[in-house]
Design goal:
single chain, mainly alpha
């Protein structure tokens, strides 16, 4: 039984590298500067992905009205995801130090539920726009929106 628990914990640690203590908040000034740079890079990537999605769709003026709602939700989801990731890393490091395997599993579950709820919001906001797209736009929409729905996208 202990062997199975150990294997499960190891699999979780490998699947979720955030469980390692090194994932905690940086304290060194150089690490803080790096974290700030990473945050700025993240914001730039978000802007680029939103712009790429919109540009790739080649929206008509009539479709623009539905774009605004989707863009707003995408930005909200990215902000929420970033905040949740920061909290997740801090809690995961704490649970790792205390060997709280069950708490770690619960934390991952809560994170997955929140992610699912965010994807439901994106789907609801995307539906009106998607219905108005032609076949070529729908194809590009699926390709480009995937960058927001992928498991590690915009963490």
């Amino acid at each position: 039984m202990k062997k199975h628990l150990l294997i499960a914990a190891l699999a979780a640690a490998l699947a979720f590298p955030a469980f390692c203590p090194a994932a905690a908040e940086p304290v060194d000034p150089a690490e803080q500067a790096l974290a700030k740079q990473e945050a700025e890079d993240h914001a730039t990537l978000v802007e680029a992905r939103v712009a790429a999605l919109k540009a790739g769709l080649k929206l008509t003026p009539a479709q623009e009205k539905d774009w605004t709602a989707l863009e707003k939700v995408l930005r909200e989801v990215v902000v929420a995801r970033a905040g949740r990731r920061k909290a997740f890393l801090a809690q995961a490091a704490e649970f790792h130090e205390k060997d709280e395997v069950v708490q770690s599993i619960k934390l991952v579950g809560q994170n997955l539920v929140a992610r699912g709820e965010e994807l439901q919001k994106v789907a609801a906001a995307a539906a009106p726009l998607f219905e108005s797209l032609d076949a070529a736009q729908k194809h590009r929409f699926a390709l480009l929106l995937h960058s927001f729905a992928a498991p590690n996208a915009l963490n």
